[in-house]
Amino acid sequence: MEKGEPEMVKHIVMWTLRDKADAVEIKTRLEDLAGKIPGLLNIEVGIDFLESEQSADVVLVAELEDRDALQTYQVHPAHQAVVPLVKAAAVARTVVDYEL
After folding, report:
1. Which of 2, 17, 72, 77 would bridge with 57, disulfide CB 3.0–4.6 Å?
2. What count of other Cβ atoms lies within 10 Å of the Cβ of residue 58?
3. How many degrees, rounded to 5, is the angle at CA 29 between CA 17 and CA 92?
């Protein structure tokens, strides 16, 4: 990649849920964002099976074209429609955003 060119962004979010039964609906709703938000190249959602003390319940890994695409994703109506469900279900959230 040439210097000054926008770099792809990886957006990773992990949630610990009040009730792990909500994980399947969250996974389905987040994966449904694929193809609906400009600049969202890939979205993957996993549900933890280990259930250790250190485990989060759900992880989202999204690849976006650049930082502007991440901002577009954050405010996009399709994403905002899922936010209340996730906020109501989660007791903890951890996020990492970085450029590739």
Report:
1. 17
2. 24
3. 20
pTM, 2 dp: 0.91
pLDDT tens-digit readout, 25-76: 999 999 999 999 999 999 999 999 999 999 999 999 999 999 999 999 999 9
Residues in the chain: 100
Q: In what order do the strands lie in the sheet with 90-99?
A: 40-47, 58-64, 9-17, 90-99
Residue 54 lies in a domain: yes
Token pair 């849920």 in the structure block, residue: 17
Q: Is residue 1 part of a domain?
A: no
Q: How far apart are CA 5 and CA 16, in angstroms?
A: 36
Domains of the chain: total: 1
For residue 3, what pLDDT band results from cuts at 50, 70 and 90? Answer: low
3-class SS of residue 82:
helix
The stretch 10-14 carries a mean pLDDT of 98
Structural domain of 58: 9-99
